[in-house]
Specification:
The structure is a homodimer.
Chain A (H helix, E strand, L loop, with lengths): L9 H15 L11 H8 L3 H13 L3 E4 L3 E4 L13 E10 L2 H7 L6 E11 L2 E11 L5
Helix pairs in contact in A: 1-3, 2-3
Chain B binds a DNA duplex through helix 3.
DNA sequence: AGAAATTTGTCCGTATGTATC
DNA sequence: AGATACATACGGACAAATTTC
């Protein structure tokens, strides 16, 4: 079997499917998710891929896992707003300084900067994008 | 070879070792870590285990990974309040959405966005520049 | 411009360890 | 003790992004 992940990797698709079940109440708060081996059968994915999907949900605090017991849907459901689906994704990359940034940092145009971008989503829609720029080496 | 992980799993021990190198400056801020394959050779662990260790460091924001490039030691210094001689200038203006922002906000390229820029200076030198983007019409 | 090499990303299958039921 | 379920670890294969030649 090859490894085709066109557009979106499988573990993310699986995580989205499970997220849907949790948010829709198909899997109620506090209930156990299907076991990893049940999920491998259902999605016909390897256990590693299933675990990657669950890791995503765990990072988003949507589930909690206990060693020999299983993975639970999180029982707490109150994250500021009524729906609690606001989330932040962060990414870091290197960019070249544009003229304005170069002037601010007192470096030459094109100098490498670190850009950290945070995207805040609420109800699926992007609320705000925050980009933070720093020098590669903080010469303090 | 069995899988003995008495007390502490291997991936955590490896992560601790790498963390030490970063915090001690053996791997300076912004520098590339050894490649995954180099680390498999050094620690004689499988690539999966190495990747698990790096994932721990990434969660702790100690490193950042870029596809095809490598994993960098994070260039931050802890934002201590020891000094107090830092100040922030803020400015707001209207900009056109570049392709990336347009995609995030699900609008057309060139759509007007509000950009708020904060420049933090310490001892005269710019420490970081933060740009926050929002839609003009907040449907909130 | 394009091909090759490098490096991280995804996915599979298997085996064994450890905690819980 | 036995069965079940998650945790750790290995090895291999191919995909995708980047860099190098």
């Amino acid at each position: 079997m090859p490894t085709p992940h066109y557009g979106q990797p499988r573990y993310r698709a699986i995580a989205d499917e499970l997220r849907g079940r949790i948010e829709s109440g198909t899997i109620p708060p506090g209930a156990l998710l299907p076991t990893e081996s049940a999920l491998t059968a259902e999605f016909r994915a390897s256990r590693g891929t299933i675990r990657q999907a669950i890791a995503l949900l765990r990072e988003a605090r949507l589930v909690a896992t206990e060693h020999g017991r299983g993975t639970y849907a999180s029982p707490w459901r109150h994250e500021g707003s009524s729906d609690g689906s606001s989330r932040t994704e962060t990414r870091q990359r290197q960019v070249d300084a544009d003229p304005e940034l170069a002037a601010l940092f007192a470096v030459e145009v094109g100098t490498a900067l670190v850009e950290q971008q945070s995207v805040t989503r609420a109800r699926g829609a992007v609320g705000e994008v925050i980009r933070t720029y720093r020098l590669l080496r903080a010469e303090q």
